[in-house]
Design a protein that fits this description.
The chain is of the alpha+beta class. The protein has one domain: Beta Barrel (Thrombin, subunit H). The protein has a six-stranded antiparallel β-barrel. The longest helix has 19 residues. It is globular and about 45 Å long. It starts with 6 loop residues before the first helix and ends in a 6-residue tail after the last helix.
Amino acid sequence: MDASHTGDEVERESPAPDSLNRRSSERLDVTWLVDCETDDTFLYASITNISEMGIFVRTTQPLSIGTRLTLRFAPPGGDGSYVLEGTVQWINEVRPLHDNPNPGMGIRFVDLTPDDRERIVDTIRTIAYIRDAPVNSN
């Protein structure tokens, strides 16, 4: 594998079970802080993309595939914070020669309430709309 591979490419090369619809929803590049917590681990990292199905957490210390964790994050300018459950679906490990520009882990949301899913979709759509809005040059 060469240095041009991204997390998305690694994901396609090693798909996790139960992930057929993983890319069926809109994905948005972001830079948000996130707290990831398991029974015995606390990780402070950043989200680099989000969809209604899950997030990619950039970290040099990814958790094991299958690990269930609690995620806490608050989109800047958003309508409050999220506390959601997720499962690590795939990891993109740090490599010795530092030829991996995007180390981290793909996390799929689990047990989302309909309200949480709707809030996530609304947040994604709002941010995408703001980014695509024309800039007035008056």
